[in-house]
């Protein structure tokens, strides 16, 4: 497949679709719009990117030996056969250190750079040190349910469904009995979205979740976005 020919084919199909339901009677206006369509004003130029190599940051075992992470993290955050502790990028290592110092931070880095570990590692470390079953210790807020669902799968990979750190999704997709079970037995980590979080704070039926989060240590917003045009300003 020639990617540039494929792009042009997609553009042609889109242009045909857009023009199919727009009829402009005025010849001057129609000529102007047609010229703009041909100039490519409605679609960006091709973008080619290289996947960067992120700066190495040692392994989970290194942070364990330095006292930054709980010893059990080395076994939990491992991969491969035989399983060995994950190697980290520098930004993942730095985030773990900042969290251990009790400092807030914002992570901005490229796609596929393991941003989730910059907060999952510190959260799990905190729960392991403090002990599970002591209320909601971390709230992770997502902009959409698809990301929350994906994170549930990622956490299951490291923590399992009955591991030393509990987590549950509470986004509005759950059935009533699932919600009741979460309210009755709050997890260590609550995964939600910003709309559901607002509802939790205002609905009487979920007041128990608010009380369970009185000792929350981590509040994570994944992801941070800027908007332009009618949606906001950059």
Summarize this structure briefly.
With 234 residues, the protein is an alpha/beta fold. It has ten helices and eight strands.
How would you sum up this structure, described in words?
- By secondary structure, this protein is of the alpha/beta class.
- It has helices at residues 3-20, 27-39, 60-65, 73-76, 90-100, 117-130, 145-159, 176-184, 194-202, 207-212, and strands spanning 56-59, 78-79, 84-85, 87-89, 138-142, 167-169, 189-193, 218-221.
- Strand 2 and strand 3 (84-85) form a beta hairpin.
- The model has no long low-confidence stretch (mean pLDDT 89).
Cross-sheet strand order for the largest sheet = 6-7-5-8
Distance between the termini: 36 Å
- Beta-strand segment tally: 8
Number of helices: 10
Task: Report mean pLDDT, rounded to a whole number.
Answer: 89
- Order of helix and strand elements from N to C terminus: HHEHHEEEHHEHEHEHHE
Notable features of this structure?
4-stranded parallel beta sheet, 12% strand, two-stranded antiparallel ribbon, 234 residues, extended, alpha/beta, single chain
Q: What is this structure's SSE topology?
A:
Blueprint: H1 3-20, H2 27-39, E1 56-59, H3 60-65, H4 73-76, E2 78-79, E3 84-85, E4 87-89, H5 90-100, H6 117-130, E5 138-142, H7 145-159, E6 167-169, H8 176-184, E7 189-193, H9 194-202, H10 207-212, E8 218-221
Parallel strand pairs: 5-7, 5-8, 6-7
Antiparallel strand pairs: 1-4, 2-3
Helix pairs in contact: 5-6
């Amino acid at each position: 497949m020639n990617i540039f020919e494929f792009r042009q084919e997609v553009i042609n199909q889109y242009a045909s679709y857009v023009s199919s339901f727009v009829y402009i009677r005025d010849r001057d206006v129609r000529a102007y719009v047609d010229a703009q369509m041909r100039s490519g004003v409605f679609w960006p130029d091709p973008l080619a990117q290289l996947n960067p190599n992120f700066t190495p940051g040692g392994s989970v075992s290194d942070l364990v030996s330095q006292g930054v992470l709980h010893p059990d993290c080395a076994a939990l955050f491992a991969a491969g056969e035989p399983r060995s502790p994950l190697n980290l990028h520098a930004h993942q290592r730095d985030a773990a250190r900042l969290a251990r110092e009790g400092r807030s931070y914002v992570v901005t880095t490229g796609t596929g750079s393991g941003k989730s570990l910059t907060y999952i590692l510190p959260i799990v470390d905190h729960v392991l040190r403090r002990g599970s079953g002591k209320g909601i210790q971390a709230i992770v807020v997502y902009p959409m349910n698809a990301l929350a669902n994906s994170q549930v799968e990622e956490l299951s990979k490291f923590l399992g469904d009955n591991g030393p750190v509990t987590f549950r999704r509470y986004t509005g997709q759950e059935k009533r009995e699932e919600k009741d079970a979460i309210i009755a037995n709050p997890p260590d980590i609550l995964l939600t979205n910003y709309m559901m979080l607002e509802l939790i704070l205002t609905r009487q039926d979920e007041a128990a979740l608010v009380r369970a989060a009185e000792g929350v240590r981590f509040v994570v917003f994944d992801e941070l976005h800027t908007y332009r045009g009618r949606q906001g300003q950059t």
